[in-house]
Amino acid sequence: MSPLPLASWDLWASMQPAFMQGALNTSGLMAGGDGVECTKCGRHYKLKSSLRNHQKWECGKEPQFQCPYCNYRAKQKMHVARHIERMHREKLEMLELSERASLTVKEDKEVPQNEVAQ
Ligand SMILES: [Zn+2]
Ligand SMILES: [Zn+2]
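# zinc ion complex -> structure
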């Protein structure tokens, strides 16, 4: 009945995969369901997709979606849409479909450059 010498424990621990070591010292670096944090501004989000959305449209950015009826601007198209529904409902009802279409903001896509030097 001799307990393992400490050296053996160290050896054992060093052989464990990284995720095991992370579990051993609860550093909290691993997203354990408590959400994710924006590394730029420190905002917390429950979902990674929300964080990505935030970083794509909000973080460090000027509001780029403008309400066509007033000075309201928002960082997310959805917010403007919701604003219009609430504040300009009567105009919305009068809207032609074509005008509705103009509300959709073009997303900047990266154009692949297929120039081949000859
Ligand atoms: Zn941020
Ligand atoms: Zn408005």
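# post-check
The first strand starts at residue 36 and ends at 37.
Residues 23-31 have pLDDT under 50 and may be disordered.
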